Amino acid sequence: MANVHIVHAHPESRSFCAAMAREATRVRTLRGDDVSFSDHYALDFDPVVRASEFVDRSDNDYLVYPLEQRHAREHHALAPDVQRELDALLISDTLILVFPLYWFSVPALIKGWFDRCFMPGALYGGKRLYDRGGMTGKRAAVGITLGGREHMFGPQGIHGDLAGGMLRHLLQGTLGYVGYQVIEPFFAWHVPYCSDAERARMLAQWCVLVETLNEQPHIPMPRLGDYDEVLRPLSRPLMP
Amino acid sequence: MANVHIVHAHPESRSFCAAMAREATRVRTLRGDDVSFSDHYALDFDPVVRASEFVDRSDNDYLVYPLEQRHAREHHALAPDVQRELDALLISDTLILVFPLYWFSVPALIKGWFDRCFMPGALYGGKRLYDRGGMTGKRAAVGITLGGREHMFGPQGIHGDLAGGMLRHLLQGTLGYVGYQVIEPFFAWHVPYCSDAERARMLAQWCVLVETLNEQPHIPMPRLGDYDEVLRPLSRPLMP
């Protein structure tokens, strides 16, 4: 049995994207997993980093957000919405994000969930990153809906690579950074324009992926052992 | 004389990042430009795409956000905060973004500014993208503060390339996509840890960049002429 946290944000609750999120919940619950589900629209989550979220600051004069995050966590004074998400992140071994691609990235609601809930000290900090991050040993999967078509991406595509290029900030810079093993993302291409049959086929594929996350390949990530104490690359001898 | 729109979001108004935004405003105003400045914290900008921002929807039953954006714009019924930003974007020939790097991307406040204000029909749509986007002939510059150090980036760096890798979604996928000529970004490295003298030096460098945007090189972008009517790459004959 696994503990799964599913995070979702789409402004239309009857969208294909919302169906993907619900199906992920259904499939993992049926499997016997412990599943928590955060729909950021239903929760009315506030994605904005704000001084006012800290009731008792370590420095009332000058805001350094990550320092106040650490201070609030140490004093059990995190904002309730952040505490709830942090608890779900820490207890779960699998994170599943489901969202529509906006500007080759996550919607602001999910961006702000990272900004506020990916907590220094708990998820990362100092040299606790990548294979030494706080979430090592856990898996993250991403399901994305988009209007674009597959031929627009890749080395010859007009937008270049999607998973390795446009989404590097998310897959490596956020999920990989805190230590998750990041599964190759699932893309529901061309969703607004495709047939019901095609949508049904994609939804079934997504369900298979969600059910078999443990068997899916991970995206390679940097390893701290290849860098020195200030994260400079270790020099390697040239091949003779 | 140029028309410049400056967009900024940092939760601490005395931060180095806020100083960069204010200095950009000062430098361009002194030069005689027409400058508008949006500090998203001061404006309390809402970064979340919401059905409720449309008072008169084209489809009350099912939300397709970009279709409602187009409908609202055609009926002069955009939300006032969006209309204000759209007007500033359309009237300006230069856009300057100043923000702290959060998770190798913009803060949610700026992400949501793209999600809500980068308007289909006006800034992009159909095959109006890259060198045929709505903002062709305009310049965009980006000033970013971060805790990381320069040696953590680049081909050998632990995080890989910053401008061409982690920030591709912003520089190409957002600013380049709508047609801006995108200047190589300015990075204020290691800001929380460096000396006042080093910060003064970086601020002076930033001011020079802001003053000389017209002379700065652009990041290369895809050209629509290299792709067919469904944006498939045109096949090129192999070299003999």
Automatic annotation (TrEMBL), chains A, B:
Molecular function per GO: NAD(P)H dehydrogenase (quinone) activity
Keyword Oxidoreductase: yes
Domain Flavodoxin-like fold: 3-206
Keyword Oxidoreductase assigned: yes
One Pfam family hit: Flavodoxin_2
CC per GO annotation: cytosol
This protein's UniProt keywords: Oxidoreductase
Protein family membership: Belongs to the NAD(P)H dehydrogenase (quinone) family.
Name of the protein in its database record: NAD(P)H dehydrogenase
Organism for this UniProt entry: Caballeronia grimmiae
